[in-house]
Design a protein that fits this description.
The structure is a single chain. The chain has six helices and seven strands, in the order βββαβαβααααββ. By secondary structure, it is α/β, with parallel strands linked by helices. Strands 3-2-1-4-5 form a five-stranded mixed beta sheet, sandwiched between helices. The protein has a two-stranded antiparallel sheet with strand order 6-7. Strand 4, helix 2 and strand 5 form a beta-alpha-beta unit.
C-alpha cells in the first residue's frame, strides 16, 4: 500500500502583505492532503500541523504543484527539519525542467484532465480575513483533488498537456515513477 501524500497549502497572508518575496513571513491557514494509504482527504489548520508533520515524515513521497518553490519554504517556518530534503514530486518543477517555462496548475489540469481549479489562492487569504475557515478547507482540498488527478494521469500515461496559443493542445512528456533514494529517511519529530 502506497504511503504517498498529495499536498497543498493556503496562507493567511500574501507576499504583498509582508512587503515582498519573503516566505519567512507567510503564515499557513490550512494544509490539505490526500493520503493514499487511507484513501482520505484531510485538512489541517495551523494548530494541528504537528500532527501532520509525523505523517509527512513517514510518507513514501509528497506530491504537489510548486511545493519546492512555495509550499515547503512556508511549511519550514513551522517545522524543525527541512521539507526540501523529503522524497518529493513537484509537478511544476518537472514541467519547468522539460519545457523551460512554468505553467499554472489550472491550465495543465484543464488541458490534461478537463478539470479546473475552483478559484485562486488570493480568495483563500480573503476568506481567512473574514474567518471563513471551512471555505479555505474546501478550496484547498479541491486543489489537492485537481493535483491528484494530474499526478495520476501523468503516472499512467507518462504525459500531461497544456494549450499553446499558437499550436493548440501540446503534450508534456513526464515520468512520475518514484526514483530510488540513496539516503535513509530520518524522523525529525520528537515523540513527546
Amino acid at each position: 500500500m502506497s504511503k504517498e501524500i498529495v499536498l497543498d497549502i493556503e496562507t493567511q497572508n500574501t507576499f504583498q502583505d509582508v512587503g515582498g518575496y519573503n516566505h519567512d513571513k507567510l503564515l499557513i491557514s490550512v494544509i490539505g492532503c490526500y493520503f493514499y494509504e487511507t484513501d482520505t482527504y484531510e485538512a489541517f489548520e495551523e494548530p494541528e500541523l504537528p500532527m501532520l508533520w509525523k505523517r509527512l515524515e513517514q510518507s513514501d513521497r509528497i506530491i504537489g504543484y510548486n511545493t519546492k518553490g512555495f509550499d515547503y519554504p512556508v511549511m519550514n517556518n513551522y517545522y524543525s527539519g527541512d521539507f526540501l530534503t523529503f522524497s518529493s514530486l513537484d509537478i511544476l518543477e518537472e514541467i519547468h525542467n522539460i519545457l523551460g517555462f512554468r505553467l499554472k496548475l489550472d491550465d495543465v489540469a484543464a488541458a490534461t484532465v478537463g478539470v479546473r481549479k475552483s478559484g485562486h489562492g488570493l480568495q483563500a487569504v480573503e476568506w481567512w480575513k473574514q474567518g471563513e475557515i471551512q471555505k479555505i478547507k474546501d478550496y484547498c482540498l479541491q486543489d489537492v483533488k485537481v493535483t491528484k488527478a494530474v499526478y495520476e494521469y501523468g503516472l499512467k500515461y507518462k504525459a500531461l498537456a497544456y494549450e499553446d496559443r499558437l499550436h493548440g493542445r501540446r503534450a508534456i512528456p513526464v515520468n512520475f515513477e518514484k526514483k530510488e533514494e540513496l539516503a535513509p529517511k530520518i524522523n525529525l519529530t520528537m515523540g513527546f
